[in-house]
TrEMBL record:
Assigned GO CC terms: cytoplasm
Taxonomic superkingdom: Eukaryota
Coiled-coil annotated residue ranges, if any: none
Name this protein carries in UniProt: Rab GDP dissociation inhibitor
InterPro entries, alphabetized: FAD/NAD-bd_sf, GDP_dissociation_inhibitor, RabGDI
A single BP term in Gene Ontology: protein transport
Gene Ontology molecular function, alphabetical: Rab GDP-dissociation inhibitor activity
Pfam families: GDI (PF00996)
UniProt record similarity statement: Belongs to the Rab GDI family.
Amino acid sequence: MDEEYDVIVLGTGLTECILSGLLSVDGHKVLHMDRNDYYGGDSASLNLTQLYQKFRQSEPPANLNLGRDRDYAVDLIPKFILSSGELTRMLVHTDVTRYLEFKVIAGSYVYRDGKISKVPSTEMEAVRSPLMGLFEKRRARNFFQYLQNWREDDPATHQGLDINKCTMKDVYYKFGLEAGTQDFIGHAMALWLDDDYKTKPARPTIDRIILYTQSMARYGKSPYIYPLYGLGELPQAFARLSAIYGGTYMLDKKIEKINVDEDGKFVGVTSGGETVKAKKVIGDPSYFGAGQELDESGGQVRVIETGKVVRAICILKHPIPGTDDADSAQIIIPQNQVGRKNDIYIAAVSAAHNVAAKDVWIAMVSTIVETSVPEREILPGLQLLGSVIDKFVSITPLYAPTSDGTNDNIFITKSYDATSHFETVVEDVSDVWQRVKGEKLVLKKREVEVEA
């Protein structure tokens, strides 16, 4: 503990592990600490006994016949990886892929008019899709062809639209797309969390749709991949990477104090009565007062609550009805469809991913809390699952830092949101990197290939 480090990282959630891995590769001397004796923090994967202990303080009931403990790796925070997205680029850039195996998620679905339909992954599926009537299919095809042909430097491909200036609403209007089609394009493909994007410049939305279609084209069934043995494998893989580049790991270390000098700048961390020095600290909100009442001395408020997520981890003994017996699926319920402000997400995986016993599916339903009865808010999602053997519901506050950290060298990550993909996590990684380093995160240009 008597060495001095460039950066101390607190918490082994995925965001923190990616950052410590990237910083170690970049030549920084990193010390990574966690109060828990396991990796993953909020993004850990639990076996069956750990799951029941965490939510019920009990053993798994024998009468449910759920199989062996070690067959399970249940994610606390369900997320899938876009196969051409930023997280895949980070995995490839850092070579972390050599520690992991991936499998393609069988299908991506959207809820519309009371039932679920597959988001079309080929032109044939689009032609047969019940999501659109005959004329709407023609309009949608024109829209997707426009995206396919669009070239920045060729105005002839722009069809009179300046997507850097006009809104997404204007683009939808130009192609005459119906509200329901806008719903599945904006929420199931561009993966926006609400409808605010429609009144903003169209470019980010179009970039997201293109990323989705590229990801879809890569493996054919869906745009998502997922690591065998659960998401808890991801933080561990980045931790291994950091260790290869000289990063030091200490688990089971209670953090007693974050030390600052008289100017309020970070100087070190005290754990077990010993203090270790560093120039900067990165950590998740739980290390910086999340959920704690301010003491009498009025310590600095470093994080604020921005909302809450309700999640239900459900154990099923059948695939989700309407998914063609898929071994895994993502289902998005756009907020408009159920009179909400926020989408509801369902992520389902099974024994095919080595995260559950044979013939067992784990389905997670999550959304941002909008009312005083959060569990009622996920009902539209729970009702799609069929019979549920057991379920574990949690309501988790979301925290964000109150300052960017550049004045005090204390850089705090955000809590994990309700989305069932990693794009928002990666945005946070890039944002923290820029604050810590004062420069944009540039990933090596490599062919993004992941075996799945």
